[in-house]
Amino acid sequence: MVVGAFPIAKLLYLGVRQISKPLANRIKAGALRSEFFRTYVCLPPAQFYHWVEMRAKMRIMGFRGAAIKPLNEDAAADLGAELLGEGIIFLVGGGCMVLEYSRQAANSRRKEEETEARLRAMEVEIARLGLQTDELDARARAAERQQMAAK
User: Which residue among 8, 44, 50, 102 sits deepest, i.e. has the most Cβ atoms within 10 Å of its Cβ?
Assistant: First the structure.
């Protein structure tokens, strides 16, 4: 069994993703305690999310023009904090994916450049050997001519 290089970058990404969950929970708790975050960060997205969700449910059930009542402040704050936490986890996971993609792209680009460099070196060597072959061929013909002239 062949063992490859230890994927330290993937291990670090996994660690960051694991840390993001408790971090998101702390941010959620802080957002619920802070009046500013509660009012301006948690409530508007929660009310919008509730409105979109209820609108979709009402349309599915066939109630087209029904009015949607907003959530009470506590429920909206909880939902907003939950959305904030999930958004943070999603952003961290997405960031890890982008970093892994860029790392893989850089590795493949480096391998491609190495392959192209080896190909260029081989082409130069082939050209040099071609010239050397032509030179040796010319010498052989010249020696053959001298041999024929000497007879």
Answer: 50
Among 34-43, 91-100, 101-110, 120-129, top mean pLDDT goes to: 120-129
Give dist(CA 25, CA 93) in Å, integer: 15
Judge whether 24 and 86 are in contact, CB under 8 Å. yes
Phi-psi region of 92 (alpha: psi -120 to 50; beta: other; left: phi over 0): alpha
Q: What is the greatest pairwise CA distance in the chain?
A: 116
- Angle (CA) 28-31-34 rounded to 5° is 155
pLDDT confidence of 42, banded at 50, 70, 90?
confident
DSSP 8-state secondary structure symbol assigned to residue 66: -
Alpha-carbon gap, residue 138 to 131, rounded angstroms: 10
3-state secondary structure 11-37: HHHHHHHHHHHHHHHHHHHHHHHCHHH
pLDDT tens digits for range 105-146? 999 999 999 999 999 999 999 999 999 999 999 999 999 999
- Please give the model's pTM, rounded to 2 decimal places: 0.63
